Each structure stands twice: as structure tokens, then as C-alpha cells.
Amino acid sequence: MAEVLALIDYGAGNLHSVANALKAAGAPHVTVTANPDVVRAADRIVLPGVGSFKACAAGLWGIPHMVEGMTERVHVGGAPFLGICVGMQLLATRGLEHGETEGLDWIAGEVRLIERTDPAIKVPHMGWNDVSPGLHDPASGLVEAGEAYFLHSYHFAPDDGRTVAAMTDHGGGLVAAVARDNVVGVQFHPEKSQAYGLALLSRFLEWKP
């Protein structure tokens, strides 16, 4: 029986593009859903996100029982989980965009504004940039070296460097991916990263953490 991948619709994601990219990467069954019961039964879960941390958190927590359903399926059921852009940032303990907002706290840390150490450095960080895998490889080879498309003004600063799966450089090091156990998050957009992004999604579909 084909695996079911739940792509969570909470009003804050580039759902059409992400769904198409997942299908192109080989996902046999992508279910776009706002139903926590569907999430509880899914084999894999993807949480996209575009916009501010505060607005995305409000959208996710605004769906009754969705956070509980995700938590149960991922932390108890062991389903592989991928967070994309703000979907990755929501893994943090808190976000500091438009005031302090509670995150999922699945990977301890906070989401902060990118500091401009050089006037030539533009914020938001937008466009193609290198992705360099972290030293500890917490994602078991899921995030490989390459170039990906970024669009963000805030960045994830984890408390534990061992959860950093990849870095990028934009006037200094920024976390490009985080991972812990069966949870991985990428700051870049795989659905906009052409062959590199599709290859990462394909590896996620095969990932057995």
C-alpha cells in the first residue's frame, strides 16, 4: 500500500508548489489537509510556511487539535517530518518577529532577525545561496551540499549546535537546516530550488530515521 504524505494546510504555505514538487520527487500520495485525524494517520508529514512567524503560529494553533495531532504522530508514532521555511522556524522554542511568539519547541532555540553586519548585506536574505552540511550530520545525509533558494528576514538560532544539519553564509553564518531524530527543517525552499530541491525531497521520501 502506498505511503500517505500529509501536507498541512494552515493558511500559511505555498501549498500548490510544494505539493507539485513532492509529486515530482516521487511522492505517490500527497494529501493536502487541515484535518488532525488525517495527520495522525499519515506516514510522513510536511509543514510549509510563508510569512511571519507570528501569523504562521496563529494559523497552526488556530486549527483545533492540529498541534496535538502532529506531536502525537511525530513524537509517539515516529513519522518523518519536514518543515519548510517558516515551517522549519516553527520548530523553535520561540520566535521574535512582531513580539515573542511560542513555537513548537521540538528543537530548542529561537528565531531572530538577521543582523546586518555589513551595509552591503541585504535583508531579507533572498535568492540562491550555498548549503553546507553540518559537522554532526543529525539528518543522516538528508541535506547535501549544493545551492538552494532562500527568502527570509529571520533565522533559526538553535540552543544546541548538534541540531544544525546545514549552514549558509549571508554576511556571516546562518542556519540552513536543523534536525533531531525524525524531524528535519530547511530554511530554504526546496520547491523553488530546482534539481537540488527535488533531490532533497526525494531523499526525504525515502528517509527512515
UniProtKB/TrEMBL annotation:
It is found in: Cytoplasm. Its EC number is 4.3.2.10, 3.5.1.2. Keywords: Amino-acid biosynthesis, Cytoplasm, Glutamine amidotransferase, Histidine biosynthesis, Hydrolase, Lyase. SUPFAM superfamilies: Class I glutamine amidotransferase-like. CDD domains: GATase1_IGP_Synthase. Residues 7-201 form the Glutamine amidotransferase domain. It comes from the Bacteria. Heterodimer of HisH and HisF. IGPS catalyzes the conversion of PRFAR and glutamine to IGP, AICAR and glutamate. The HisH subunit catalyzes the hydrolysis of glutamine to glutamate and ammonia as part of the synthesis of IGP and AICAR. The resulting ammonia molecule is channeled to the active site of HisF. This is Imidazole glycerol phosphate synthase subunit HisH. It comes from Novosphingobium album (ex Liu et al. 2023). The gene is hisH.
